[in-house]
Design brief:
alpha/beta, D-Maltodextrin-Binding Protein, domain 2, Lysozyme, 8-stranded mixed beta sheet, two-stranded antiparallel ribbon, 21 helices, 12 strands, 53% helix
Length: 477
C-alpha cells in the first residue's frame, strides 16, 4: 500500500512540474540555457584549441612588458621571446596578437581567458604548475644576485640568507632557491634592478641572462656569483587547456632547440659584447638627468613628423652633440644635430643653431633617406641603413649594398654593410669605419633611452595598479 501511495505522490509531483513548465515555458527555457552555458564554460578549455587558432587565424598571447621578452621599435615588436613566438605563429600560418602586460598580471588574465598562452621569462615553479599548464622548458637559466658597483659584494649563500634578497614574483615557490632569504616585492624585476642601480636597494635576485641584458641599461649593476641550479624557462597555458595546442607548442620548442634557433636568439640578444665603455654609459645616464628634459618635447614632436621613434632621434642628437645646441665642429657642422651647410640648405633650415629647426630638419632628412632605400630592405635594418647614410652619405651606403649583393652576402642586413664599408673601395676607408661605429653607438643609445622611458622614469619606478588589459598590438605574416 505504501508503495502505491509513493507512486501516486510521484505522479502528482511530475504532473505539477509539467503544469508549472507549461505555464512558465520562457523561464524554464532561459534557466536551461543558463545551465547549459555554465556546463559548457566549466568544461571548455580557457584557451582556444589548436583547431580554433588555425580556423580564426589568430594566436592570442599575453606577454610581459620587459625588454628581454619584447620591445617596440618603429612600431614593430622585437625581442628574445617575441622572435620565437613570431616563428611559431608563422609555422601555424596565423597572426600573432599580443597583449603587453606587467608580469604580475599574466596569470590572472590567462585564467580569465584573455589569451591562449602567456610568456615572459616565466620560470617553472610549484606555483606556476599549480595555476597554469606549463610547456616543456625551452631555455635554461641560472640565477645570480646583483648589487651596486662600488659596494661590498655578497660572499656566500649563507651571507645572503642572513641579509635577505629582494625578488620579483617570478621566483615564488622555487625549491632550488629555498636556501636564500627571498623577500617578495610588488615591483617588476627591472624596477628592482633599477632601484639597486640607484643605490635605493641592496641586493636583488635575477637570472644570469636578465642580468646581462640589464647591464646594458644600468651601468652600476654588478653580478655576484652564479647559483649552481639551473631553472627552466617555460610558456604557459591555462589549467583548462587544449591538448593539441600544448603538443603543438612543445613540438615547436623542441625543434627550435634542436635546430639551434633558441641558442641563436639568446646569443643575439644577451651575449653580444657591450658596445659602450662604462664611462660612456654613465655619461649618457648623467645627461638623461640633466640635459634631456630640455629637449625631449622637441624630439617627440619632430619624431612624429619624421615617423620615427623619438628615442632614435634623441640618440642621434646625443651622438652628434651630446645634446648641446651650441656645439660647433672644426669641419663646419653646427647645432644639436650637427647639420652641414649643404644639408641645412637642402632641408630649408635657415639657422642651424635654431634648435627646433635643426631637430625637425634631421627628422625629415632621416625619413627621406629611409624612403630612398631599396624596397627589399626591411625594418629594423632599413632604419639602420638610413642612420648609416646620415653619417657617411647615401651614395657610400648604396655602394656597399651593391658590393655585398654582388658578392652573394646578406646585403639587406646592416651588420653586413658595416663590415663592407671599411674597405668599400678596396683600400682602407676611414669614413666607413666611422659609420659602422656610429650606427653601433646609436643603436645602444636608443636602447638605453627606450629602457629609461619605460622602466626608469619616476612614474615607472612607482607602484602600478593592476589593469585589466593594455592596448593590443599585432604582428601579421
Amino acid at each position: 500500500m505504501s508503495v502505491l501511495r509513493q507512486f501516486k505522490k510521484t505522479v502528482r509531483l511530475v504532473r505539477a512540474l509539467l503544469q508549472f513548465c507549461g505555464k512558465n515555458i520562457e523561464a524554464v527555457l532561459i534557466l536551461g540555457l543558463v545551465l547549459f552555458a555554465c556546463i559548457q564554460y566549466f568544461l571548455r578549455p580557457q584557451s582556444q584549441s589548436l583547431d580554433q587558432v588555425v580556423a580564426t587565424g589568430q594566436l592570442r598571447v599575453l606577454i610581459a612588458d620587459e625588454p628581454d621578452s619584447q620591445y617596440v621599435f618603429n612600431r614593430q615588436h622585437y625581442g628574445f621571446e617575441y622572435e620565437l613566438l613570431a616563428q611559431y605563429a608563422e609555422s601555424l600560418g596565423v597572426r600573432l596578437t599580443l597583449d603587453v602586460v606587467p608580469y604580475a598580471e599574466l596569470f590572472t588574465l590567462l585564467e580569465g581567458g584573455f589569451g591562449d598562452i602567456a610568456v615572459g621569462g616565466i620560470i617553472e615553479s610549484n606555483y606556476v604548475k599549480r595555476v597554469t599548464q606549463p610547456t616543456q622548458p625551452w631555455f635554461w637559466a641560472k640565477t645570480t644576485v646583483l648589487y651596486k658597483r662600488g659596494t661590498s659584494a655578497p660572499k656566500s649563500v649563507e651571507e645572503l640568507a642572513e641579509q635577505g634578497v629582494l625578488a620579483s614574483s617570478r621566483y615564488y615557490q622555487i625549491d632550488e632557491l629555498s636556501e636564500l632569504n627571498l623577500m617578495d616585492d610588488h615591483r617588476s624585476e627591472y624596477q628592482l634592478l633599477s632601484a639597486v642601480d640607484l643605490g635605493a636597494e641592496r641586493f636583488v635576485l635575477s637570472t644570469n641572462y636578465r642580468a646581462l641584458n640589464a647591464k646594458h641599461y644600468l651601468p652600476n649593476l654588478n653580478r655576484s656569483f652564479i647559483l649552481p641550479e639551473k631553472l627552466g624557462v617555460v610558456w604557459v597555458l591555462p589549467k583548462r587547456y587544449d591538448e593539441g595546442l600544448l603538443k603543438s607548442i612543445n613540438g615547436f620548442l623542441e625543434k627550435a632547440n634542436k635546430n639551434g634557433l633558441v641558442k641563436k636568439l639568446a646569443n643575439e640578444y644577451f651575449t653580444a659584447p657591450s658596445r659602450l665603455s662604462t664611462y660612456d654609459t654613465l655619461a649618457i645616464h648623467r645627461k638623461i638627468d640633466t640635459a634631456l628634459p630640455k629637449f625631449e618635447y622637441k624630439f617627440r614632436r619632430a619624431a612624429r613628423k619624421g615617423n620615427i621613434d623619438w628615442q632614435l632621434l634623441a640618440a642621434l642628437a646625443y651622438q652628434e652633440s651630446r645634446w648641446s645646441n651650441s656645439a660647433r665642429s672644426p669641419t663646419g657642422v653646427r647645432g644639436i644635430m650637427q647639420l652641414t651647410t649643404e644639408t641645412a640648405t637642402f632641408l630649408g633650415v635657415d639657422d642651424r643653431m635654431d634648435m627646433t629647426q635643426s631637430i625637425d630638419g634631421a627628422a625629415r632628412y632621416l625619413k627621406r633617406l629611409r624612403a630612398r632605400l631599396p624596397k627589399e630592405i626591411q625594418e629594423p635594418e632599413r632604419t639602420w641603413f638610413a642612420v648609416g647614410a646620415y653619417n657617411v652619405g647615401y651614395r657610400h651606403v648604396i655602394a656597399a649594398y651593391k658590393k655585398a649583393k654582388a658578392a652573394g652576402l646578406k646585403h639587406t642586413k646592416w651588420s653586413t654593410i658595416s663590415e663592407v664599408l671599411p674597405t668599400l673601395y678596396g683600400t682602407p676607408f676611414d669614413k666607413g669605419v666611422q659609420a659602422a661605429s656610429y650606427v653601433d653607438r646609436i643603436q645602444t643609445f636608443t636602447d638605453i633611452l627606450r629602457f629609461y622611458d619605460l622602466h626608469q622614469r619616476e612614474e615607472a619606478l612607482s607602484s602600478r595598479p593592476l589593469k585589466l588589459l593594455t592596448s593590443v598590438k599585432e604582428s601579421s605574416f
